[in-house]
């Protein structure tokens, strides 16, 4: 508990993201990983193997971009740093352990970035933002990554924004669901629009204490290359009687033909 408090106090995080709870979540994820290390092992290995498979398939070796790099638990950052001229890690929070791990990898850069482009507006007021992911679009133009990895972030994108919007009590459930679906659809479209190889690792089903949920909210994905089970919270982490687990998919979204898009 004390270690978590110290980590919270020492980790830098932009104010809007902090207000929405991203820093608390980042600290909590690392703490849960420490408690559930054995149960998470196969998921993390599967994720790292998927990223390396996509990296091998990419034709260029200049830049690899990882979205949702977080604590780097599922990211083989050392291997990527050896393979690519530069590696950009993008997240709203880079935990101290992640920064420490890459401190001697001179071609790796941590970029603090909100991939949805909505967090500042959400932190500012209770309206549903209609902004687009401009910072990410700029980054993609600048870096033109040969490999872009979405690392277990897709299903997470709407969670804290929805918590914030629900707390305001101003929005109908259908409006909130439409907003959440938009965040996921935009993220998938961005991956499909990238000229490099896109690697998407994402939850495709949640088995929670109150049944099965679909975290994809209608996002259209190609057939997965592989799927596996992530035992996120073995009992008694969340429930004394049930394990909470996710089904996770590894996807290689193909580049969308620009002529076919609106
Ligand atoms: C389940 S974690 C991914 C795990 C991470 N790849 C790792 O190995 O530790 C989801 C990550 O997505 C990040 N995230 C969620 N929403 C984001 C956003 N709008 N912009 C950037 N990062 C976001 C969180 O900060 C978190 O690090």
Describe the structure.
This protein has 262 residues and is α/β, with parallel strands linked by helices. The protein has one domain (2-260): 3-Layer(aba) Sandwich (Rossmann fold). The chain has 10 helices and 8 strands. Strands 1, 2, 3, 4, 5, 6, 7 and 8 form an 8-stranded mixed sheet that branches. α5 (77-83) links the parallel β1 and β2 (86-91). The longest helix is centred in the N-terminal third of the chain and has 21 residues, at 37-57. It is globular, with a radius of gyration of 18 Å. The protein starts with a helix and ends in an 11-residue tail after the last strand. The model has no long low-confidence stretch (mean pLDDT 94). The site of S-adenosylmethionine (SAM) has 24 residues, from α3.
Essential attributes:
binds S-adenosylmethionine; alpha/beta; 262 residues; 10 helices
Percent helix: 40-55%
Catalogue the unreliable spans.
none
Beta content: 15-25%
Q: CATH first level: which class? A: Alpha Beta
Distance between the termini: 51 Å
**Helix/strand structural class:** alpha/beta
What's the short version?
With 262 residues, this protein is an alpha/beta fold. It contains ten helices and eight strands.
């Amino acid at each position: 508990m004390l270690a978590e408090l110290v980590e919270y106090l020492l980790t830098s995080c932009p104010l809007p993201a902090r207000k929405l709870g991203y820093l608390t979540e980042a600290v909590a994820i690392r703490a849960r990983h420490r408690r559930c290390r054995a149960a998470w092992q196969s998921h993390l290995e599967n994720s790292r193997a998927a990223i390396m498979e996509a990296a091998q398939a990419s034709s260029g070796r200049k830049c690899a971009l990882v979205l949702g790099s977080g604590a780097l638990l599922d990211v083989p950052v050392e291997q990527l740093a050896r393979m690519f001229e530069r590696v950009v890690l993008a997240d709203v929070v880079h935990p101290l352990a992640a920064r420490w791990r890459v401190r001697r990898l001179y071609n790796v850069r941590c970029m603090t970035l909100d991939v949805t482009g909505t967090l500042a507006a959400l932190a500012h007021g209770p309206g549903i933002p209609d902004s687009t992911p401009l910072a990410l679009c700029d980054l993609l133009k600048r870096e033109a990554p040969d490999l872009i990895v979405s690392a277990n972030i897709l299903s997470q994108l709407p969670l804290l924004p929805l918590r914030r919007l629900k707390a305001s009590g101003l929005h109908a459930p259908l409006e909130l669901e439409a907003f959440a679906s938009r965040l996921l659809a935009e993220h998938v479209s961005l991956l499909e629009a990238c000229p490099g190889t896109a690697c998407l690792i994402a939850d495709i089903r949640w088995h929670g204490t109150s049944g099965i949920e679909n975290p994809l909210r209608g996002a259209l994905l190609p057939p997965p290359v592989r799927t596996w089970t992530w035992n996120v919270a073995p009992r008694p982490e969340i429930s004394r009687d049930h394990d909470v687990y996710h089904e996770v998919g590894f996807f290689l979204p193909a580049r969308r033909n620009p002529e076919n898009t609106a």
